[in-house]
């Protein structure tokens, strides 16, 4: 039978060559280093006929396109779990998808052996907490959602947990101190600045201090114990502004703005850096990446991807590579 997509069409998931980093010198002199490989995954618009994944190698300080993605779509959720990169849901121009694929960076192979979501959706938040994968909110093509699904890799199944207090799509999610935070987004009528967090032990959501700015489609990541939120847009304009949440002080504080406005930006932490990847500045989709330096409180241009990834995501996998 092979693997089929949600329309029942056959998928040709051929095995790709493993990712290899250039080797310098004879085998006995090679040094092995543990590094974070940053992957920019998918993204697609109606004007594109190609959707790919590329990888940033910090030892070479360069990006390389390594694989097409199994399904050409936007609004997908991307995160890492057990050293696999998971691609969750999305919108292919016709359907809101429930399918889930996972990528093995050791073999450069996509696998479609993960159970689908209980409902098709796009523009959700996805994150790992306690060995589980959480899919939070999103849009099903009719309405914004407050539903939350949890994936148990040991059982290969998704189950519903307590819903959020507020319907949210184009939100950000982050995990700090055992809590899952759902931040901002849109309820389908207006952009939000509200924040709530989920306790797995109590299976309940509680409200938290609000963002300083209503925003959706922003980048969100945990860096040095704080939640950083960058870019996105309000009802009028794209943002370059940023803010961070200190869970010890239980408050949000402004952060110096990025160099570029970035709506639909992805935020990731890799090799000790906080990186703002891609996005849309109001005119073009960007392939640039900015790095934040907390010591100098500045952003600077860090690198440039080979492709643009509108509506895509990023994932980080730690691997041993040869220098």
TrEMBL record:
It comes from Microcaecilia unicolor. InterPro entries: Kelch-BTB_domain-containing (IPR052392), Kelch-typ_b-propeller (IPR015915), Kelch_1 (IPR006652). The lineage of its organism: Eukaryota, Metazoa, Chordata, Craniata, Vertebrata. SMART domains: Kelch (SM00612). Residues 1-26 are annotated as: Disordered. The keyword Chloroplast does not apply. Keywords: Kelch repeat. Residues 1-17 have a biased composition (Basic and acidic residues). This is Kelch-like protein 20.
């Amino acid at each position: 039978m092979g693997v089929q997509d949600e329309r029942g069409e056959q998928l040709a998931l051929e095995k790709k060559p493993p990712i290899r980093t250039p080797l310098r010198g004879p085998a006995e002199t090679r040094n092995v280093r543990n590094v974070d490989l940053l992957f920019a995954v998918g993204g697609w618009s109606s004007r594109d006929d190609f959707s790919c994944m590329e990888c940033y190698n910090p030892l070479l300080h360069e990006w390389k396109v390594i694989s097409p993605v199994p399904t050409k779509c936007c609004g997908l959720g991307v995160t890492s779990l057990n050293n696999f990169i998971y691609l969750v849901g999305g919108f292919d121009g016709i359907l809101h998808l429930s399918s889930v694929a996972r990528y093995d960076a050791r073999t450069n192979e996509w696998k479609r052996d993960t159970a689908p979501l209980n409902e098709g959706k796009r523009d959700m938040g996805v994150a790992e907490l306690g060995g589980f994968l959480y899919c939070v909110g999103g849009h099903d093509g009719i309405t914004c959602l407050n539903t939350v699904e949890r994936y148990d890799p040991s059982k290969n199944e998704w189950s519903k947990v307590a819903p959020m207090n507020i319907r949210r799509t184009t939100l950000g999610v982050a995990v700090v101190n055992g809590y899952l935070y759902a931040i901002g987004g849109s309820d389908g009528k207006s952009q939000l600045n509200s924040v709530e967090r989920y306790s797995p032990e109590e299976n309940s959501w509680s409200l938290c201090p609000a963002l300083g700015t209503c925003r959706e489609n922003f980048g969100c990541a945990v860096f040095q114990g704080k939640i950083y939120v960058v870019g996105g847009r309000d009802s009028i304009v794209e943002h370059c502004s940023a803010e961070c949440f200190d869970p010890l002080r239980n408050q949000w504080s402004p952060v110096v703005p990025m160099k570029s406005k970035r709506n639909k930006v992805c935020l990731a932490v890799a090799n000790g850096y906080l990186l703002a990847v891609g996005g849309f500045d109001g005119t073009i989709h960007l392939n640039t990446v900015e790095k934040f330096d907390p010591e100098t409180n500045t952003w600077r241009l860090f690198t440039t991807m080979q492709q643009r990834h509108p509506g895509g995501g990023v994932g980080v996998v730690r691997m041993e590579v040869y220098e």
